[in-house]
Amino acid sequence: MSRKITEIYCPNCGAPAKFDIVRQMYVCGYCGGQVGIKEALQEKQGFRMIHRERMNDSFKSYRLMQANCSGCGATLVFEENEALSNCAFCGRSLVRTEYLSAKNMPETVIPFKVTENEAKDLLAKWCDENKGKAEARKLKSLIPELKGFYLPYELVRGPVDMTVSRMDRGSRYDCEGFINDEFVNRSSQLDNLLLDGMEPFDMEDITEFDFAYIAGQRVKISDISDKDLEDRVKKETAQTYIPSLSKTMESKALDVYTDVSSAFRLPTLLPVYYISKGDVMAAVNGQTGKVSVRALKDSHFYFIPWWFKAILSTLAFSLVLFMALVGFGADKASAMLITGLTALVFIIVTLCYYSDTSRNAFSVVSGRKIFTSGEKTFRRENGNLVLSDEILQRKVMEPVFFKKIKDTWTPVILKFTTPGRVAKMAVYCLVALFLPVILALLINGFNFKQLELGGSAVWFCIAVPTVPIYLLKFGIEELYERPLVYTINEDGKKKRYREFPKINIDKSVVKDILRAVFIPPASLAVWFGIACFFVMVYLTAFGFD
Ligand SMILES: [Zn+2]
Ligand SMILES: [Zn+2]
Predict the structure, then answer these.
(1) pLDDT category, 356, cuts 50, 70, 90?
(2) By CB count within 10 A, which of 105, 321, 469, 538 is most buried?
(3) If you measure from the C-alpha of residue 178 to the centroid of ligand 2, how many angstroms do you get, rounded to a whole number?
(4) Cα torsion for 374, 379, 380, 382, to the nearest 10°?
(5) Is 10 helix (H, G, I), strand (E, B) or coil?
(6) pLDDT tens, residue by residue, 29-88
(7) CA angle, 144 then 148 then 149, to 5°
(8) Cα(110)–Cα(203) distance, rounded to whole angstroms?
(9) Is 287 helix (H, G, I), strand (E, B) or coil?
């Protein structure tokens, strides 16, 4: 079996070792052999050194040219006899010089599998299938201009440390993941979204780079700074993980900070057919045949703030309810009262529901849509391109959350809004709203006939507006900021971990309370309030007569 560049192999038996997120090391599935993160990184560095020397040797047997674009700064490397007059990315003229050093060449490559003519056919097919689009009509006449390039990418593979938080709330949670095949574009001129559109690539074909791959092809040289590359790597890794993180975090609006220093990185060339003429931009994946076309014009996306959505839906709901009540013969005054009270409950629910997003202001975002030929890709069989039965998918390992428990980082499961917690919250609210009524029922022996709700009118006047505010402020905070934490036992069972908060009694608060209860005149008001409450309970329990 040939060894793949991207795999880490077991030092004992030579089988590929898979990464174990919980143990934070590569573990062999056959014999249990282990490779630490540091050793894995060193092994890859070793490979790069050996490869570099080999490349310097083989470089001497090729005569290569380099062309620099005077417009966009793109640099291309190609064989001496290649006719290149204008830059394919911006149309300006190119300055040719001899290519003198192998140092800008990457270590790995995914070779072209789709020929130039096949790529043109695939693009023509996309145009035929999308006749209604202005992009297809304009693109069709430009298809002869489609050219193949090996584009510079950075392959990132390995463990990722992440810190994640919701955009609208503070608490940060630590978790670990593993990315298999993140390809980060290293060109400054090319449209990132367009290139994303024709991904993914199939990692099966990745191999060591050799100058023989340049024959008849053009290679684009990486031209972004190390800092820009770092930013792109972090950003794209975070983007890749957001879908799986949002399941635990119960929100898509996440801030994810990633540290990819434990992952190994390999500069890679990827095969891409590219066309850029005026506002027409299209790419065809040179390995899988997937087509990606950029829209000619900007699209506008409108965002409205979350609280506005809550108000709008409450208004709509109230209007329908009011009409229905009047329609069923209720008089306007009671319909109004019922609608008002229901609207109050409704707005609490919708505010909680929509507060998930962090969009607090009206905004318009513009961007170009990317059209693609879909998830189906091609493979080569007996010399022909055939549709593949398998759908290529970007693979990421499910993230594992960690928490420092007694000074050791322990893998945990976090749960935020479980049905049980939401139900508990609802019960607290009902108790707060109906406290005097509940006490009244207790003292009159659950005699509902005798119950006089009017006795608690004052209480309702205070509780109805304050309970929702407290619920929003503290209840939602409790749900989202203090998740249930479970640790996993050795037998795989979940176990609830309870953190006992340190109770700090603030002396000044105690003093204030004692003063309010015992020292007049404040204490008089407090005792008067308490007395009123009990009168209210009594009146509610036994009526006014
Ligand atoms: Zn092994
Ligand atoms: Zn250019």
Answers:
(1) low
(2) 105
(3) 36
(4) -100
(5) coil
(6) 899 999 999 999 988 888 888 888 888 888 877 888 889 998 888 899 888 877 777 888
(7) 145
(8) 8
(9) coil
Tell me if 194 sits within 8 A of 370, measured CB to CB.
Answer: yes
Backbone angle region of 329, left / alpha / beta, with phi > 0 → left and psi within -120 to 50 → alpha: left
d(CA 23, CA 360): 40
Calpha distance 84→481 (Å, rounded): 59
Write the CB contacts of 49 (distance below 8 Å, at least 6 apart in sequence): none
Indicate the pLDDT class of residue 233, thresholds 50, 70 and 90: very high
Question: What does the radius of gyration of the chain's CA atoms come to, in whole angstroms?
Answer: 33
Helix, strand, coil shares of the chain, percent, nearest 5, are 40, 30, 30
Distance 19 CA to ligand 1 centre (A): 13
Say whether pLDDT at 494 is over 80. yes
Distance of CA 165 to the CA centre of its chain: 11
Ligand nearest to the CA of 9: 1
Measure the CA–CA gap between 68 and 193, rounded to whole angstroms: 24
- Proportion of the chain above pLDDT 70, given as a percent: 96
Nearest partner of 21 among 377, 409, 366, judged by Cα: 409
Q: Do residues 103 and 119 make contact, with C-beta atoms less than 8 angstroms apart? A: no
CA of 70, nearest ligand number: 2
**C-beta atoms surrounding 46 within 10 Å:** 10
Taking only the tens place, the pLDDT of each residue in 164-187 is: 998 766 789 999 999 988 899 999
Residue 332: both structure tokens together: 């306007």
**What does the block give as tokens for 308?**
């506005």
Confidence of residue 5 (pLDDT cuts 50, 70, 90): confident
Q: Where are the beta strands (DSSP E) in 286-439?
A: 291-303, 363-372, 378-381, 384-387, 400-405, 408-415
Look at 104 and 67; give whichever has higher pLDDT.
67
CB within 8 A of 141, min separation 6: which ones?
none
DSSP string, 298-328: EEEEEE--HHHHHHHHHHHHHHHHHHHHHHT
Question: Out of 41-45, 402-406, 467-471, which region has the weakest mean confidence (pLDDT)?
Answer: 467-471
Do 157 and 262 meet the contact criterion of CB atoms below 8 Å apart?
A: no
Round to whole Å and give the CA distance between 58 and 211: 7
Q: How far, in Å, from the CA of 58 to the mean position of ligand 2?
A: 29
pLDDT at 108 over 70: yes
Nearest ligand atom owner, CA of 75? 2
pLDDT(124) > 90: yes
Bridge partners of 468?
Answer: none
* 195-200: average pLDDT: 90
Position 121 confidence tier, pLDDT thresholds 50, 70, 90: very high
Instruction: Give the pair of three-digit tokens for residue 86.
Output: 């204008």
* Cα-to-chain-centroid distance, residue 478: 24
**Distance from Cα 68 to the centre of ligand 2, integer Å:** 8
Q: Is the peptide bond before 520 cis (omega within 30 degrees of 0)?
A: no
